[in-house]
Amino acid sequence: MSDIRIKKQLRELGRLTPEQYALAEKLPFALVLDDIRSANNVGSLFRTADCFALQHVYLCGITATPPHRDILKTALGATDTVGWSYHEDCAQLIGELAGGGAQVQCLEQTKQSTPLDAFSVGGTFPLVLVVGNEVKGVSQRVIDLSHGTIEIRQYGTKHSLNVAVSAGMAVWEISRQLRNA
Amino acid sequence: MSDIRIKKQLRELGRLTPEQYALAEKLPFALVLDDIRSANNVGSLFRTADCFALQHVYLCGITATPPHRDILKTALGATDTVGWSYHEDCAQLIGELAGGGAQVQCLEQTKQSTPLDAFSVGGTFPLVLVVGNEVKGVSQRVIDLSHGTIEIRQYGTKHSLNVAVSAGMAVWEISRQLRNA
């Protein structure tokens, strides 16, 4: 039984070269990082964006930007492949994206948020997912400008998940639905 | 539109106290961390296990164990609520768990792995998910003793995701199916 479950070698993974990736179709799905404190989290989020071929990563406020030692350590080169831009004022960016027709969803626990397991991808695209500061979450000003909030139901004692982990779960779920649509 | 999307206050999150958590029903789902190098990743994984009410976290090989400064920093107390144990020899543990009736799945890219988006939870429980070293992944010896391997399809240039992120995606997907079953 073991012989068929040999680990793939690097060349067998079928990954794209950076040149191929630049030309590859991306999902109509972007991430906004609003005031992310940890550059390690920023790097992890870049790596996730590369793996799922997201369209763009918007870095806002105090979020560190490449090149940065701690981003590079966790992004492992994904900052060279994923399109990104920096915007000091996140609310202004969100206003512009929503004004341009994007659907803006915040990953945040609000009184009216949709559980991620009940969220159905639909409406206008691109879908822009905003994740916020490790302690404060997404700012109320950004939430007010968005189309909705998505929450990951939790069953334990902690108030929240690590932001790179929770964003990963949301990217997984939304990408799964987009690719199956 | 904004007034209904006010962020929840901590007391509105409805989280369990550690005492309530100890008595709460857990999912028939456990994590095995095999040779995880980064204690930060271990802490993140504990936090994920708490949030989804997993049954147990098995720490194996070189994986750091609580109390540990970097685990505490990212676990934020989840090491006090989630049941865990340490096992030097991961393969021996896996043999014992499989022998005891558990279904062992490894999160690893093999020639015969099931894509996570095609994985249907079923068979025997508890389901035990093994995640491996940040560079080497799950060892072939452990894969050989398991019932299957699950792979997250990737569309970018990087070979893998951060282990706390990829495990988070798998925990999300498997928990979602277990709770909807």
Q: What does this 3D model show about the protein?
A:
- 2 copies of one chain form a homodimer.
- With 181 residues, chain A is an alpha/beta fold.
- Chain A has one domain: 3-Layer(aba) Sandwich (Alpha/beta knot), CATH 3.40.1280.10.
- Chain A has helices at residues 18-23, 39-51, 69-75, 78-81, 90-99, 140-145, 163-180; strands spanning 29-34, 56-60, 84-87, 103-107, 114-115, 127-131, 148-151.
- In chain A, helix 2 links the parallel strand 1 (29-34) and strand 2 (56-60).
- At the A-B interface, helix 2, helix 6 and helix 7 of A face helix 2, helix 6 and helix 7 of B.
Q: How do the helices and strands line up, and which of them pair or pack?
A:
2 copies of one chain form a homodimer.
Chain A: H1 18-23, E1 29-34, H2 39-51, E2 56-60, H3 69-75, H4 78-81, E3 84-87, H5 90-99, E4 103-107, E5 114-115, E6 127-131, H6 140-145, E7 148-151, H7 163-180
The CATH H-level homologous superfamily of chain A: SPOUT methyltransferase, trefoil knot domain
Task: For the largest sheet of chain A, list the strands in their spatial order.
Answer: 3-2-1-6-4-7-5
Q: In oligomeric terms, what are we looking at? A: homodimer
Helix content of chain A: 25-40%
Query: If helices are DSSP runs of H or I spanning 4 or more residues, what is the number of helices of chain A?
Result: 7
Tell me how many strands of chain A there are: 7
Quote the CATH topology of chain A. Answer: Alpha/beta knot
The most extensive interface, with participating residues per chain, is: A-B, 65 and 64 residues
For the largest beta-sheet of chain A, the strand count, sense and barrel status come to:
7 strands, parallel
Low-confidence parts of chain A lasting 5 or more residues at pLDDT below 50?
none
* Helix/strand order of chain A, N-terminal first: HEHEHHEHEEEHEH
CATH class of chain A: Alpha Beta
CATH architecture of chain A: 3-Layer(aba) Sandwich
